[in-house]
Structure formats: C-alpha cells, structure tokens
Prior knowledge:
The protein is of the alpha/beta class. It is built from 20 helices and 21 strands.
Amino acid sequence: MxxxxxxxxxxxxxxxxxQAEAKVYRALRxxxxxxxxxxxxxxxxxxIEQERAKDxxxxxxxxxxxxxxxxxxxxxxxxxxxSSSSEWFSVDRKLQKHVIKNPINQALNAKYSTWLKLNDHQxxxxxxxxxVLRGHAVFFPDLDDTNALSRPDLPATLIGGLNDLQGVRxxxxxxxxxxxxDASSFTPLGKRGVDVLREVFAKxxxxxxxxxxxxxxxxxxxxxxxxxQIQVLDILRSHRRVAVSGGAGTGKTxxxxxxxxxxxxxxxxxxxxxxxxxxxxxxxxxxxxIPNLEVMSFHQLCYRQVEKANQASGRDxxxxxxxxxxxxxxYEVQLPNALAYSLEILPxxxxxxxxxxxxxxxxxYWVPLELLLSDFxxxxxxxFYDDNQNLYTRAGTFPIQDEPFSLTTNCRNTxxxxxxxxxxxxxxxxxxxxxxxxxxxxxESPGQDPQASKINFRIVDLIAKQxxxxxxxxxxxxxxxxxxxxxxxxxxxxxxxPAKWLEExxxxxxxxxxxxxxxxxxxxxxxxxxxxxxxxxxSQRQELLYVGMSRAKSLLIIVGRKDTLAAIKxx
Length: 571
C-alpha cells in the first residue's frame, strides 16, 4: 500500500467538501503499491514568482523514488468548456453551469511551481538530481467517457475518469510513461529526493518536552497538535497575509516560530519580531543557527536600522523624528518614524515578516514594517495576536484584509489553571485543555516579608524534595512599579545548591527567575508563583491577572494577603 499524507479515515474523507477528491484519495491509497508517496491538498508560496510558477496548490502530488512526481488536479461533477469565451465550467445534476478554473492550467502551473519550490529548498541543490521527471494530469472521477475532453494541450493519456478509479495503478504508470517519453533523459528522485519532498510539503514539528519527570506526563499531552493548529498551518502554507488570534496558551508563539523557521528554510529572508524584549531574546536563542532568519523585538529593529542609516548618511534620524513629532513618545511615535526614514537610506529588506504579540503594535509600527518587505503588496506577512493581552493599551488594525483565523483550544495550561485565568478573558471562546493537574494554590500571609519567606519555603520544597529543576520555576511580580522591593526580599533568601536567583535575565540551568508579568508576557513556565498583588487595584488590572496566571503550564501558586486572595477567588 502506498504512503499517503495526511492519513485520513473514511469518516474524515466522507466530510471533505469535494467528494471527487475523496474518491481519488481512496483509489490512490488502496491501489498504488509500496514505494509511492502521495501528498494530498498541498499548498505553497514561492520566494520569487515567475510567469508560470506562482503561489498555488495541487490536489495530489504523487511521487516515486525510481521515477519523479506528478501534479494531479481533480474536478467533480460534469465538465464543460466554452471555446468562444475560453471558460471552463462544471455542470450539476440540474444542468446548471458554474464557472471553474482551467484544470489543465492549474495542473501545469502546479508542476512548474513545485519544481521552483523544491529548488528554493536548501537540501535540494546538494542532491544534484538534474532533470527530474515531472508531469501533470487531470482526473474527472464522475465522468465515464473522458475521450471528449482530449485537447492538444491535454492528451487522452493524461485524463483520468470513472473507469480509471478501478485501475488507477495502470493509469498512473501510463502518465509517468508519457512524461518519460517526452524527456530525452531524466534522473530518478531517489529516496533522498522523496525525503526533501516530505520536508518541503509535509513537514512535521513538535514542541520539545521539559526535563522534569514530575511534569513529563502533562508535557507529553501538550505535544499533540490541536485541530486548530493543524488548520492554521495549512492556511499559512499557501496564504501570504494572515492574522491569527487566540487566547493565552492556544499556541500562537509556537506557530509563529514554526512559520518563521519554514520560511527561512525555503529561502525567504525572514524577520520574526515581537513587542516584548524578553520574548524576542528567548526566540532568538531558539533560532541562533537558522540561516535567513533574524529575530528581534520591534524596538531592537528600530535602533539597529536607525544606527546603520545614521552611519551611512551622517544624519540623526531620531532627532529628525523628534522635530517632526514634538511631544510625541519616543518609543510610540518618534522611533518608528525614524525607522521609516532609514528605509530611504538603506537597501535592507526582508522577503517575509512574522509578527508575534501583534496586539501591542501601534498604528505607527505597521507602515515601516510593510516597507521593510521586498515586495510591499505581496511579501508574506503573518500576525499573531491576543486582544485580551493588550497590557500596553495599543489600538489599531493590522494591514491584513482577510478575516483573522481564531485558535480556540488552550494547549498550554492544565484545566484548573485555564479555568482560573480565563475568568478574566474576553473574546472568542477558548476550550479548556484535556490536561488534568493540581488545583490553583493560594498561599496567605499578612505582609511582604512573611510572603517572601513562604515563597522561598515553597521553592526549596519543590527543588529539594520534589526534584523539580530550578529553571522550571518562575516568580512573577504584578506590581512592576515597586518590583525592586519584591526582588530584594527574595534575593536575600537562600536556595538549595546549585540553584540561584536570576533577576530579569534569560533563564538558564539552575536558575529561579524573578520577573514582572509585563516583561514575561509571551513566555511560559511549568511552575509560576504570582506575587505582588496586594499593592495593585485588582478591579482595574484584570488583564494583568489573565496574563500572569496563564503563564503557568502545570502549577500556579498565588501569594498575598487574605483580602487579596479572597478577592481573586470571588471574581
């Protein structure tokens, strides 16, 4: 039996919008022998479009290591062609005509685009495959007699019909034979060639598990992609402008990172950016060795570009922006406009941009970001956002016309943490994860010093007795204005060796991180201890509670006075 990707059950096939595609899927799956690899509903975007090779998709991509690959377009129902208007149309049972795309051109363009996409991949050139056998064909599974469809640009051999469903192996062999006769010589794909096709058109990924044995079971459940995430990866595969929204824990940052990695591996010079510097540093550490990919916060980008432009031109772009926009904020208005000025001086551009934390980007940020694209109109731009995490009260819309895709399943938190944190969420409903865990814990203490001692006792117990790695523990402070007082109270308390406190840094081995909620936004930790709630107005900072609580993956501990904890429990 052939390998077909993705593997769909008969139940899922029966739910496909195109039952014509389902018929061909079953035939190829069941009748082609081992060795054939079939990709279903493949989509792509190209780094550089050409006359025949454009962004697109194909219904089936059939390949074999001893041969090459075929792009097959499937059309269901009756089929017609009007030579006077050069229009193709489908015909339903009521004899109503519906204009459709030219299936021959779709298959032909897919053949050229697939070849160009493969040549964009870093591993393809090293194979030195030369002239790989590649062809295109069309399949009309609802038509008995396909001879009437034969045209100079589509010989009868390349047309599949109802009768071929029962002998699809012979039809595939005939199509490959047709294209091999058309080529003077060709180089077989080989196993390595098929592997590259898998890498390009059916790449899988997963989130790496944590090392703590106590948290391993919950982490293993997080590795299973949700239906939401699978769908959005399919959408991102062939769309150039997409906005993706979702509540905390729905996988936005994971998907943003994966999309940036894929674009870079496909030859796109890619920028992955976000608002939070801490998140940018973390993502940068994950992408340090990936060619074509640069990761930085938006304001890091501004400073780097402006400094380079100043050196090249002898101008002071920030000062020019201050003159043009007097009294406006440096980070909010003046620096983004200085970035825009730099584009008149520097040729630096990106083929694609992926933006996480889009809710925190002001209107002034989007214009220079779009101008940074090598193709202003068609350069890939992906924005991931959560309106309920808008801690910086930004306002505005993204430069994307299509409706956003909503992620609706929490795949980060345990069910108890989800229930507690999502009390403060407003937006598209998000389903609780199927990950059970401990209830949220509340540690009551009257003042900051006894609270710090209670936090220290908790951490010592987790590390020394429960064998939790120190780097899996984070203390988040809600009151950022008075963070220094909270930090100092903790740092003078001892931790079991070799654990040590880390104040506002990049989390490393044997470090217990102390951070503010605002700075930690976009990141996560297996265990979060939430502190510093007594000195803020909880009724006015519910979005802060939402962000802080939802950073915890497996265990959330909230520390405060009796009245503070009662208010949180009662909301």
